[in-house]
Specification:
This protein is 72% helix and 1% strand. With 404 residues, it is mainly α.
């Protein structure tokens, strides 16, 4: 126990020291950049935006201060550095894309509050099958499906305990036993590993499928719209994102179950009964669950139909409009007339991740600064030097830069 406490204490000290180092490193780089002249061909205000971006990047990576707090830095720094006035800066924090994602958050909050997401997950697992490889696929499909509209983290948090219960009750293994499993239980240990890792990867893969699936999608949409005045609709993203997610999910499942963690002739006795028991505990679908399913389906239909049906009278309606209409319905539709209880109450809605909403604003503000100061144009001109490279290598370099 003493060794464990010492290890935890050491890790805590490393994290604290890392935050302190990041705090000073970001500030020092920021000051140095401001003191140095702008590179040739770059405007001074563009160089100032670059300095602010470096400061925010370092503080985000090291979490020197809370991530949402870092996202607020452009509000004081842009006006001080004469990049743009405060009124213009704060406008980015109210971008329509933020409200699109907020509508998705409200739908997700309602699903989680009434346990509809858990029911969908368990029914999906039962539908796919309860053999070892099929169960891994069922869990991955359920998580990916839910991640299209709910936070990836929330999906993983919900499904991991169910996965642990399946592993412990069916294989007799606990998670801590996986590395020490004897040869006779090798395939059972492989099943457990594939299931746990599959949940994590499926959450990320499913988030790629829709615009509201994960924050980076929305940030990219907002920046493309801000920098190039190109709007990516929900259905346009779906046409690309859904097939991509399906292919990636299939590859991930194949690698986990057939290559990395093969399961041989393993059988899972009682797995079907366990899933049925979990579903039985949920009871019949409630009025709230049915209402959420109907409203969610209507939102999806409207998002998708906008890409194919053009009505002049609704030309000003956007994906954001649909998202907020759906959210308002959640607040309006009652589940208990006598008590005045609605599908979504504000005490539940207020629990949505507002920090991500602020983070969106910070990302959009950075994009706005890149565009208005010409920094985006300058950076793109530098990348033209890579034009002689093969397109695959070029995309790989850009992807690596983006990842880091």
């Amino acid at each position: 126990m003493s060794d464990k406490n010492d290890l935890l204490s050491g890790l805590t000290d490393v994290l604290k020291n890392g935050k302190k180092a990041g705090l000073f490193l970001g500030a020092i780089l920021f000051v140095i950049m401001l003191l140095l002249p702008a590179p040739e061909g770059m405007k001074p205000e563009a160089w100032a935006v670059a300095a602010v971006t470096v400061l925010m990047a370092v503080w985000w990576i090291t979490e020197a201060i809370p991530i949402p707090a870092t996202a607020l830095l452009p509000i004081p720094l842009y006006p001080i550095l004469t990049v743009m006035p405060a009124k213009q800066v704060t406008g980015s924090y109210g971008d329509e894309v933020i409200y699109l994602f907020m509508g998705g958050f409200f739908l997700a909050a309602a699903m989680e509050h009434w346990n509809l997401h858990r029911r969908i997950a368990l029914l999906t697992v039962r539908l796919v099958g309860t053999s070892p490889t099929h169960m891994v696929l069922g869990f991955m499909l359920a998580v990916a499906l839910l991640s299209m509209g709910i936070s990836n983290t929330a999906c993983a948090v919900m499904m991991v305990p169910i996965g642990i219960a399946v592993v412990s009750q069916i294989t007799g293994l606990s998670i801590k036993d996986l590395h020490d499993a004897n040869p006779e239980k090798k395939y059972a240990a492989n099943f457990a590993k594939a299931l746990m890792i599959g949940i994590a990867y499926a959450a990320s893969i499913g988030g790629v499928a829709t615009l509201i699936g994960t924050p980076p999608n929305m940030i990219m949409k907002a920046q493309i719209q801000s920098l190039y005045n190109i709007e990516i609709s929900f259905v346009q993203w779906l046409i690309f994102g859904l097939p991509f997610a399906v292919v990636m999910l299939a590859i991930a499942w194949f690698l986990l179950t057939k290559v990395l963690f093969p399961m041989g002739n393993l059988t899972l006795a009682g797995s079907r009964e366990l899933i049925d028991e979990q579903i039985k505990k949920l009871g019949p679908m409630s009025r709230a669950e049915i209402s959420i399913a109907v409203i969610g389906t209507l939102m999806a239909v409207m998002w998708i139909s906008r890409g194919f049906i053009k009505i002049d009278a609704l030309k000003m309606v956007s994906d954001t409009t649909v998202a907020i209409v759906g959210a308002m319905l959640l607040f309006l539709v009652p589940v208990d007339f006598k008590k005045g209880v609605h599908i979504l109450e504000w005490k539940t809605a207020v629990k949505i991740p507002w920090d991500i909403v602020i983070l969106f604003g910070g990302g959009i503000t950075i994009a706005s600064g890149f565009q208005k100061t010409g920094l985006a144009l300058w950076l793109s001109s530098q990348l033209t030097q890579l034009s002689a490279l093969h397109v695959v290598i070029f995309v790989l370099i850009v992807a690596l830069l983006t990842t880091f």
